[in-house]
Write a structure and sequence with these properties.
Elements: H1 11-19, H2 29-39, E1 50-54, E2 57-58, E3 115-118, E4 125-128, H3 129-135, E5 137-145, E6 158-167, H4 172-175, E7 183-188, E8 204-207, H5 209-215, E9 218-223, E10 226-227, E11 237-239, E12 252-258, H6 266-270, E13 295-306, E14 309-319, E15 327-332, E16 339-340, E17 343-345, E18 353-359, E19 365-375, H7 381-384, E20 390-394
Length: 397
């Protein structure tokens, strides 16, 4: 990233940025709960004002990145979600707009019966799609983020959808190791027709049973009430709530037992730095779980005419962590203090929350917007390094 786009971020922040997603469909109780939260908030400070337009974030890409449009193919395939279009009353991303980090292989044949090979307790077996369909049930809203989510793609490798599938806990008798130290290797179809410029083949990850149970992992068969699409891992993918998307194996076809001394998979090695590992661990057991720390960022900046002057409304999201952020602070450029965000609207568990802030800059110019989680006091590595900082250029105050 050139100095032209640094906006006061430190060299360390820029380097870090360059290196670096229960129940039914969100209607009824869930949607009403969000609406009541919003309606119960203090009076809208922009009431009576006139929306003049939006202010784009600047310096995020040297080339125009098409949003919500399938790009490339196979390992080099992408689709970026347009976060600027999100609304608090409708936090679910439609399947066709949910981000894609790797598109389906040209060699993937879904016309044949699909089975998942299971290790069993001394009796290997297979799990058919018919059985998965029979056992499938709503799993609720869950967020997924790619560990390689960056400002170059407007942070569009981040989405929330409504999942259905089968909890791994339901399959415990068939996949839970009965020996101490044994781990689970989850693998997916990973053969491609061409070489990749951006990724390594090897869709697999090693977990402990306790990690999967603590996360509430499940085998997903549907998104938003419809079967998975090929680009989203059809016919079945692993979903590990609260973990980066690299752990959520697409086109899943096998679970096997491996020893505690098994080496890390190529998928784990590729994402070692992006998932904040220390160096490049050789063994899978040396990896820290790829947990998404609490994070927050702006997604939309609106320009308003209000009481004869100009004011800006910033809308953003917060997500990640075992505990939802209860309060946030916002900063406009490094020389200014963090101040409390005006309003935070919590959504469904394991989804994202929305926040808004009224801003009246005193001078025109470029501003770098950063967030901080103030409660609870938890680890926020990417926020601390300025990873989700975004810049806007204000022309009128």
């Amino acid at each position: 990233m050139s100095n032209k786009y640094s906006y006061g971020l430190s060299r360390r922040e820029l380097l870090s940025a360059s290196l670096l997603a229960g129940g039914a469909w969100l209607v009824g109780a869930d949607r009403l709960a969000i609406a009541r939260t919003a309606l119960g908030a203090p009076q809208d400070p922009f009431a009576g004002g006139k929306l003049l337009g939006t202010v784009d974030f600047v310096g995020e890409s040297r080339v125009q990145v098409p949003m919500e449009t399938p790009l490339g193919s196979e390992l080099d395939g992408r689709l970026f979600t347009d976060l600027s279009a999100l609304k608090v009353e409708d936090p679910v991303v439609p399947t066709g707009k949910f981000y894609v980090r790797t598109r389906a292989s040209n060699l993937l044949d879904l016309s044949k019966p699909w089975t998942i090979h299971l290790p069993g307790s001394g009796n290997p077996s297979s799990l058919t799609m018919a059985e998965l369909t029979r056992l499938s049930e709503p799993q609720g809203l869950h967020l997924m983020e790619c560990a390689g989510n960056t400002r170059e793609g407007h942070f569009g490798l981040l989405s929330v959808t409504d999942w259905s599938g089968v909890s791994l806990e339901k399959l415990a008798s068939r996949i839970q190791p009965n020996e101490k130290g044994v781990r689970l290797l989850v693998s997916g179809f990973d053969t491609y027709s061409g070489a990749s410029r951006t990724s390594l083949a090897g869709a697999s990850w090693v977990f402990t049973w306790d990690e999967l149970m603590a996360a509430g992992a499940f085998l997903a068969t549907k998104m938003n009430g419809q079967p998975l699409t090929p680009d989203h891992g059809a016919p079945v993918r692993l979903v590990v709530p609260g973990r980066y998307g690299c752990t959520c194996i697409k086109w899943m076809n096998e679970i096997s037992f491996v020893s505690g001394d098994v080496e890390a998979t190529s998928q784990m090695q590729e994402f070692a730095q992006r998932t904040h590992q220390q160096g490049m661990p050789r063994l899978a057991r040396e990896y820290e779980p790829a947990v998404i720390d609490p994070a927050a960022m702006p997604i939309r900046v609106e320009k308003w005419q209000l009481n004869g002057g100009i004011k800006y409304r910033i809308t953003g999201i917060s997500w990640g962590g075992p505990e939802r952020a209860q309060s946030l602070a916002i900063q406009f450029n490094a020389e200014e203090d963090f101040v409390p965000v005006n309003r935070l609207v919590n959504a469904a568990k394991d989804s994202w929350s929305f926040w808004t802030h009224a801003w009246a800059p005193k001078l025109a110019g470029t501003y770098v917007i950063r967030l901080r989680v103030t409660e609870p006091r938890v680890r926020t590595r990417r926020l601390d390094m300025g990873f989700y900082a975004r810049a806007v250029r204000i022309e009128e105050v």
